[in-house]
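Hello again, I could really use a second opinion on something today. My current little project is about how a certain protein chain folds up. You're getting the sequence in one-letter code plus the fold written as tokens. Here's the protein in full, and shout if anything looks odd to you:
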Amino acid sequence: MREGILLDQPVGDKIAEYQECKRAYEPNLFSSEVKMISRREFFQLAGITTLGTTVLPESVVVGVTTDRRSNVGKPNKPLMYPGTQKSSTKRMLQFYKRCGVNNVCGNPDQWSLEGLLELKDRCIANGITLDIVPLGMPLSVGLLGDKNNRDRQIEQTCDQIRLAAKAGIPAIKYNMTVLNVLRTGTTGGRGGSRYSTWTYEKGNSNKSPTRAGEFPAELFWERISYFLNRVIPVATEHKVRMACHPHDPGVPTTGYRGVQRVLGTVEGLKKFISISPSSYHGINFCVGTVASNLDNPSAEIFDVIRYFGQRKKIFNVHFRNIRGRRNNFQEVYPDEGDINMYRVMNVLKEVGYSGMVMPDHVPMHPDDPDQLQGLAFALGYIKALIQVVYDES
């Protein structure tokens, strides 16, 4: 006989009441809709007031949980988990594992089926799952050059999607940018750290055009649409999610060095995801980048997450905090910026995001040339926040 509920008197009609209570409060032990009640509350609802020695028959025994966290991690409640995208050497994979990380975005030594499988096997051998790989193409994939050059890059991109599918890798992250990440140096931070900084007024002193020359918004959108209309059907066919990173950072609508960065605004990102309806077309949502493209990031970032999260367009999360706003910001430790990162994690949970939450850029220090101290701090912070927001369920 299994452990049951003990009574000091004949059960009689209490069994029927018990069964009714069971149906009312435990329709599905794995449902997020279950209302958890204490053992005392259960007995009060069933009209049972005294504990004794009689045991309910096995047919009506039900486990009434006293642990509020028992639903955490059940299949109907997807979990976020910490991840990272730094080097994938054996040494670094073991470092991630020591930090409690079990999933990564890894870069193969060679972009081939053999290279992808070797990377995947190396991850598995160190207890790590390979969730994402970066596209092995230029950041400006599909944007620059004549039509023949663009078509060749697009076909190579499609080939890499096919290879990722054969290797069992479910996602690829990529950029569509003419300009690289824009920064104007560093600013001093806590403990002698250096914070990567962007000040548009300082950066705009460079007026020379890029190798792309003038690149207005209309041309950008034409090239992006041309790329997506050819690439996303292949990704959809092979079930590989394509996660595009926003432009880091956005610039004024007049442009920077002749380039208008259309993926450097929320409206631009909304237009981007609307170009293809495929569930395999989405965003590598960088909290720090999106926040740095807002006028009031500490207030606005949460509804931006909701917009893309509710549409299931967030395929990966870069968890970075900033101090400042559009055109003038510093990248700081996750606990000291203007963004409430606990609220960010809660909103990601709210919209049902399930996937990696990874550090992006971390502060630098002369004693930490590989930035492993900053990375470890950020990973621990992410892991703790994930535990907290799910423990509060």
Observations:
- The two ends are 33 Å apart (CA to CA).
- Residues 1-76 have pLDDT under 50 and may be disordered.
- The chain has two domains: 6-60, 81-391.
